[in-house]
Every structure is written in C-alpha cells, then in structure tokens.
Amino acid sequence: MCPLIGEECMQLKCAWFTHIQGNNPQTGMDVDEWGCAVTWLPMLMIENSQQQRQTAAAVESARNENVRDNEENRELIKKVVSNMLQSPISPIMVETVDEPINKLEGTKEE
User: Fold this and answer.
1) 20 and 27 in contact (C-beta within 8 Å)?
2) What pLDDT is stored for residue 107 in this prediction?
3) In terms of C-beta density within 10 A (0-12 exposed, 13-18 middle, 19 or more buried), how is residue 44 classed?
4) pLDDT at 49
5) pLDDT at residue 1 above 70?
6) pLDDT band at residue 98, thresholds of 50, 70 and 90?
7) What does the alpha-carbon distance between residue 40 and residue 26 come to, in Å, rounded to a whole number?
8) Which of 20, 47, 80, 82 has a CA-to-CA distance to 56 between 20 and 30 Å?
9) Do 43 and 25 meet the contact criterion of CB atoms below 8 Å apart?
10) Among 1, 35, 7, residue whose Cα is nearest residue 21
C-alpha cells in the first residue's frame, strides 16, 4: 500500500519509488532495493543522525586540539616575557665610522 495515496504501489510509475544502495545503519547489512522514498525516510534519518554525531565528534576533537595548542602558546609567551623582564637587554652603543675600511684582514699596507 502506498502511504501517499492509500492504494496499491505503482512502483516505477511513481516518482517516489527510489533505488537505495548502501548499508543499513541499524544492522550494517547491505541494502540494494527499490522502495517508496517515504518508507525509506526513517532509515535515512537514522543514517543522517549517525553522520552528524561523527561530524560533531571530529569538530570537538579539533577544538580540543586547538585549545591545547593555544594554552601551550600562552605558556611559551609567558616564559619568554618573564625571561625578557628578568634579564633585559642592555642598550647597544652605535658609533659612526668616518674613514672607510679598505683593508683586508691579514694584509699590510706599505
């Protein structure tokens, strides 16, 4: 019986008559059947829910990795700043040289 018109299924004459191939998400058994799209909906919704759970788990895993990396970076920055504050770099004296340097090391000028 067709759940849409309440009469006998018209099969291939109906646009809702669909071929499904894959695995049943509840049993894991192979599926290769024609049937009414309306009757396939519960199985397809279960499959969709499983895929959403897998996606959510992958996103959560990536998030946890990012949080861990960010915390490590924060700690590294704290250590670098702390070291810089404990031993500041002394200012560098820069002097200009008036005469050009034309001598190569190890040679004598006569």
Assistant:
1) no
2) 57
3) middle
4) 94
5) yes
6) confident
7) 13
8) 20
9) yes
10) 35
**How far is 6 from 79, CA to CA, in rounded Å?**
74
The one-letter code for the residue type at 47 is: E
Torsions phi, psi for 68 (to 5 deg): -65, -45
Residue 7: beta bridge partners? none
Tell me the C-alpha distance between 18 and 34, whole Å. Answer: 5
Length of the chain measured in residues: 110
- The model's pLDDT over 8-64, given as tens digits with 9 standing for 90+, comes to 999 999 999 999 998 888 888 999 999 999 999 999 999 999 999 999 999 999 999
Query: Which residues make Cβ contacts (< 8 Å) with residue 9, sequence separation at least 6?
Result: 1, 2, 17, 36
DSSP code per residue over 31-49: EEEEEEHHHHHHHHHHHHH
Q: Where are the domains of the chain?
A: 11-85
